[in-house]
Structures are given as C-alpha cells and as structure tokens.
C-alpha cells in the first residue's frame, strides 16, 4: 500500500522534503538489507551495519533538507556509495585494512560529501559532550528553549521559577557556560 | 553591561524579529563595536550547532524507531535464523584462520618432505637387483640426430639402424647354439651376434626359461658352417666357495675380461639357482660365461645388486644343462652336442682367453 505511494525516487525525496515520516521509514526499510549485506560481508557486525546505514541515511536526509542534493543516480547507489566510504573509513580507524572490498553494487566516489558530513559529525559530538557536561537543570532548560522551542512562559512554570525574568537570567547563565564549554572543545575549520 | 538583555537582543536580531528601525540601529552598532560583532557571530554559531544537534537527535530517534519497527516486523523470521555465535566468530576471524591454516599445512608438508629427503639415501641401500643389459649410448645419439634431421625437414638418407640394447652370449655347442640372458633379448625384433674376430650371424630365439633368466639362441645363417670344436666344458657339480673365476663380456664395443672369486653359493636374496661372485661387472656383461681356473663353464652372468660393491650374480651351469635337456625334449630339435673335452685345462690364463674369445659374442638386440 505504502509501496505505491513512494514508487519512485522523486516521490521519496518529495516526501522527505515535506517532513513525511512514512517516506523516511519506507526509504529506510528499502535499502537496509543492501547495506547490511555489504557491511556484514566485509567483516562487520549487525550493529555496525545499523550504525553506518543510519549515518548514510542522515547524510542523504540532510542533503535533501539543505536543498543541496544533486542526485545524478539512483538513491540506492547514492546511499550505497556514502555507506561504503563511511565503512572504509571505519575499517581504517579500527586498523583493519580491507584489501579487497566485496562490492555488490556500483558506486560513486563522492569526494565532497563525506568530509562535510564528518565536520558536522564532529560538531555534533562536541555539542553532545558539552551538553552532558553542563548538567541539569541547565541542559533541559536550554534544550526546551532552543530545540523544542517552548515559550519562556512554559519553561518558567515547568522549572518553578518565580517569574520569567529569573528564568531568562538562569538561561543566560547556562548559555554562557555552554558557550565556554563548546568553544574550548570545538575549533571550527575554515 | 553584558547580561541576558543583550542576548535577547542578539537573538531577536538573529531571528529577524526586530522592528526595522531597531535592526538598523543594531547593525550600525555592530559595525562600530567589533566585540559585539564577535559575540553575535559566536552566538549564531552556538545556536546553529545546538539546533543542528537537536535535529540530529530527533532524526536518530526516528531512525532508531524505524529500525526497531522493521526488526519487530521481521522478528518471526529472524528468530529462526538468528546468527549463531560461531558464525559471527567465523566472519570476524576467517582471514586470520585461513592464514594460520595455510601456514600450518605448509609446515607439516614441509617437514614431511624434508624428512623424506633425509631418508632417501638410506632407502637406496636396500637391496635392488640390476640386470646388466646395456643400452647403447651411441645409438641413442644417432637416433636423436635422426629425429632432429626429421624435425628440421631435411631429407636424410636412412642410416643403417643400430642395436638398441646389447649383452653377451657364448656358444654351447658347435652346431650354432648360443646362450644368453633372457632379459637381454626382451622385446627384441631381431638379434645379431658378433664375436671379436668380426664374424656376425643372425640368430633366433629357440628356447627360453624366464625362471633362470636364460635363453638359447640358434644361428639362422644358411652359410653358417659351425663354430668348430668348443674349448670348454660345462660343470655339472657345484663349485666351491673361494674358487677363482673369470668372465669375458661386452660391456663396451670391445671384449672385456673380468676376474674375481666365487663369494657365495647362493645368489640374490638366497636364490639357490645362482652364485654370488666378486667380479666388477657393468651393463652389457649379462649373458657372459663364468669360468673357473680349469676352463669349465660354471655359470652365466646375470645381474648385480645395486649399491653393493662386488656383489654380482651368475646362474649355475647345472641349470643351463638342465634347460638344454628340456629344450630337446619339448621342441624335438636335433640333439645338441654339449662339448665333452676341455682343451683349456692346464693352459695359462692368457692362452685360455685367446682360445675362448672366438666363442664369446656380443648380442645385439634390435627393436
């Protein structure tokens, strides 16, 4: 039933663009076996396959969201290529050089996609680290405001502050600390 | 005075929710106050990173739940084909194990091989019997030349074929009977005999006893007028240990004399039909007569033991005589007149040899 809905690559991309979770789910389920097979037949485990595949899907997803996708091939080939590169890198980090990769599909070299993704990934890691060092209630407070985009009013009630000014002052202090943590660990390249 | 109000202002600026005139004022301020500009830039980056983090987090969650759903949907099938631990282990270590296995195989076979190499000389010492039939080297060369000629497509005049193998034989009666070893004439097409004087006869095989490795040949030539009186006789009794014996044979083109003594009354591995003698022999000696000091034929040279010095063997003459009798009975040929008088008795060794050498032939085998 769903199948007919996302028959073509264009339909899937359009679905993701419109924040349709079913399109994402369909895409995810469609290509997982291919990547899983690739990773496992090149000395990986199930968990590693899942990890790499999700990263690949994220790269693809963010490309669509960022409107920077120039797809010259099938989605399948694109995801395969990204995952292949990510996996080779992972293997190299583990110190196990794959002298022969079992390719089940053709692939693109994708020179520019993966480095960008790695930069994002690094930033993402630093942010996660900084937030966890920040501790409670700062973390939840900031997440509520900046990520979940709750209003200052709701936050004041939730945390039991006497008024919004206290909450804002608290948020300001938390932000200062986060800033310090984040920028000591993260030096943006360029 | 950097407190949260400034941040609020910055955030409003970044969100583009400032009224137009306030924004203009703020931008003007930014151009003059570099410290503020830095702060704004930093703040922007931080907020972006945080939003990015948030998006990523929720995306991850989404994907995880999708994955979970997918696995849950596959559960009934997955449950049965759950990858066993050994399979995972195998996948992880297959390469290493393959290398280890090949190394161990290599070392096992390498060790076996080298042990065998060490053993090889030892094995050579185990008894081996060599028949002394000579493969004619010169002929091999000629044939090779001939083949080469054919290969190079030249028309070569067909050279007279020469013998492939040669041995020795000697007369046992004046009317053209000659004895030699069976293995000398094995697989022969035609056989020629020739003595030192250059007399050459075509012979055919008339009787063979493979048990004693003896064959009797007869001269076929119509112009053949008999060998004349033979100077030696055949000894019927067994000879004694240590008796001095000698032989004549053709291990090469010319006749060769060999001398030694009778070293054992039995032959190879206790064979009672032959003697062991200590005469150095070579391929081509097979079929030669073995004579004692008095000029009696006591045996027919037959073979030697490989790797053992001075251990040669000769079939006893009594078996030769027995075989002649058998031949007369079975083939109804004219009686073979075995010589009865020994004219060698009492003469010196050199005199004996002079008389003998006309009755010893090189046996040439063509096939």
Largest sheet of chain A, in brief, is: none
Our Rg estimate of chain A from Cα atoms comes to 21 Å
Question: CATH superfamily membership of the largest domain in chain A, which one?
Answer: RNA polymerase sigma factor, region 2, helix turn helix motif
Order of helices and strands of chain A: HHHHHHHHH
Percent helix range of chain B: 40-55%
Secondary-structure element order of chain B, as H and E? HHHHEEHEEEEEEEEEEEEHHE
CATH architectural designation of the largest domain in chain B: Beta Barrel
What's the CATH class label of the largest domain in chain B?
Mainly Beta
CATH structural architecture of the largest domain in chain A = Orthogonal Bundle
Provide a quick synopsis of the model.
Chain A is mainly α and 190 residues long. Chain A has helices at 2-5, 9-17, 21-41, 46-65, 75-93, 113-134, 138-147, 152-159, 164-185. Chain B has 2 domains: 4-66; 171-366, Thrombin, subunit H (Beta Barrel), CATH 2.40.10.120.
Could you explain how this protein is built, in words?
The complex is a heterodimer of chains A (190) and B (367). With 190 residues, chain A is an all-alpha fold. Chain A folds into two domains: 2-108, Orthogonal Bundle (Rna Polymerase Sigma Factor, Chain: A); 114-185, Arc Repressor Mutant, subunit A, CATH 1.10.10. Chain A has helices at 2-5, 9-17, 21-41, 46-65, 75-93, 113-134, 138-147, 152-159, 164-185. Chain B has 367 residues and is α+β, with helices and mostly antiparallel strands. Chain B has two domains: 4-66; 171-366, Thrombin, subunit H. In chain B, the strands form two sheets. Chain B has a six-stranded antiparallel beta barrel. Mean pLDDT of chain B is 81; it is low at 154-159. The chains are: A mainly alpha (190), B alpha+beta (367). At the A-B interface, helix 3, helix 4, helix 6, helix 7 and helix 9 of A face helix 1, helix 3 and helix 4 of B.
């Amino acid at each position: 039933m769903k199948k007919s809905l996302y028959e073509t690559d264009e339909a899937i991309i359009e679905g993701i663009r419109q924040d349709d979770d079913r399109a994402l789910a369909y895409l995810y389920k469609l290509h997982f076996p291919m990547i899983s097979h690739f990773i496992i037949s090149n000395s990986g485990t199930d968990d590693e396959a899942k990890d790499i595949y999700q990263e690949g899907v994220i790269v693809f997803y963010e490309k669509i969201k960022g409107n920077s996708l120039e797809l010259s091939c099938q989605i399948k080939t694109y995801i395969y290529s990204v995952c292949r590169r990510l996996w080779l890198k992972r293997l190299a980090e583990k110190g196990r050089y794959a002298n022969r990769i079992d390719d089940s599909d053709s692939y693109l070299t994708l020179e520019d996609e993966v480095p960008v993704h790695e930069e994002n990934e690094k930033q993402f890691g630093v942010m996660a680290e900084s937030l966890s060092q920040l501790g409670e209630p700062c973390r939840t407070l900031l997440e509520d405001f900046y990520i979940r985009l709750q209003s200052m009013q709701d936050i004041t009630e939730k945390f039991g502050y006497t008024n919004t000014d206290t909450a804002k002052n608290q948020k300001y202090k938390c932000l200062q600390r986060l800033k310090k943590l984040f920028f000591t660990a993260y030096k943006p390249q360029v | 005075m950097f407190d949260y109000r400034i941040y609020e202002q910055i955030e409003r600026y970044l969100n583009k929710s400032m009224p137009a005139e306030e924004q203009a004022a703020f931008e003007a301020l930014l151009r003059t106050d570099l410290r503020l500009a830095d702060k704004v830039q930093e703040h922007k980056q931080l907020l972006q990173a945080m939003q990015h983090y948030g998006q990523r987090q929720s995306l991850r969650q989404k994907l995880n739940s999708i994955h979970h759903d997918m696995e849950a949907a596959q559960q009934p099938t997955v449950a049965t084909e759950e990858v066993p631990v050994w399979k995972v282990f195998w996948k992880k270590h297959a390469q290493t194990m393959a290398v280890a296995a090949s190394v161990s195989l290599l070392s096992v076979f390498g060790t076996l091989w080298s042990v065998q190499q060490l053993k090889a000389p030892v094995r050579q010492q185990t008894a081996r019997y060599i028949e002394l039939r000579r493969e004619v080297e010169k002929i091999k060369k000629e044939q090779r030349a001939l083949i080469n000629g054919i290969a190079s497509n030249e028309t070569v005049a067909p050279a007279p074929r020469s013998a492939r193998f040669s041995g020795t034989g000697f007369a046992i009666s004046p009317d053209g009977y000659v004895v030699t070893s069976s293995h000398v004439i094995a697989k022969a097409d035609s056989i020629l005999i020739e003595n030192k004087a250059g007399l050459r006869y075509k012979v055919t095989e008339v009787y063979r006893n493979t048990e004693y490795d003896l064959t009797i040949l007869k001269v076929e030539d119509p112009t053949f007028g008999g060998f004349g009186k033979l100077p030696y006789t055949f000894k019927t009794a067994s000879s004694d240990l240590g008796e001095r014996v000698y032989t004549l044979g053709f291990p090469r083109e010319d006749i060769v004399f060999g001398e030694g003594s009778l070293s054992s009354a039995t032959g190879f591995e206790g064979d009672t039909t032959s003697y062991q003698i200590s005469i150095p022999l070579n391929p081509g000696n097979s079929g030669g007569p073995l004579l004692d000091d008095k000029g009696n034929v006591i045996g027919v040279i037959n073979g030697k033991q490989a790797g053992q010095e001075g251990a040669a063997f000769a079939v006893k003459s009594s078996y030769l005589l027995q075989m002649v009798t058998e031949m007369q009975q079975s083939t109804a040929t004219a009686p073979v007149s075995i010589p009865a008088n020994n004219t060698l008795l009492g003469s010196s060794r050199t005199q004996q040899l002079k008389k003998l050498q006309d009755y010893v032939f090189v046996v040439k085998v063509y096939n």
